[in-house]
Amino acid sequence: MIAESAQVEEMDGHVYFPIASVRQDLLRPSDRRSVCPKTGQAHSFHSVVGDDCNVNAAWRYPDPKPSAARIADHIAFWRGVEVVH
Questions:
Q1: CATH number of the structural domain spanning residue 30
Q2: Hey, CA dihedral for 47, 48, 49, 54, is it positive or negative?
């Protein structure tokens, strides 16, 4: 399990977990950045479990736009990461 919290935020079909609820030892920073006009610039992370690396499987908005302020200090997952909530 990479993250677990009852205090998630949902936005645009994605579930965002508070950073404090995410196992940081399983994430590695990525150089990938993307920009969404609604939320701002996303910073990506690789999910690393044992010898398996899921490239750019997580992201966060360190400085989200005001319309996305509720996902500040949260991380979302995709690319094969199963999210159950």
A1: 2.170.150.40
A2: positive
Q: Is residue 68 part of a domain?
A: yes
Are residues 28 and 56 in contact, defined by beta-carbon separation less than 8 angstroms?
no
Domain residue limits at 57? 9-77
The per-residue pLDDT for range 11-65, each reduced to its tens digit, is 998 999 999 999 999 999 999 999 999 999 999 999 998 899 999 999 999 999 9
Kindly report the pTM of this predicted structure. Answer: 0.88
Inside any domain, residue 24: yes
Residue 77 Cα distances to 5, 10, 16, 20, angstroms: 14, 12, 8, 15
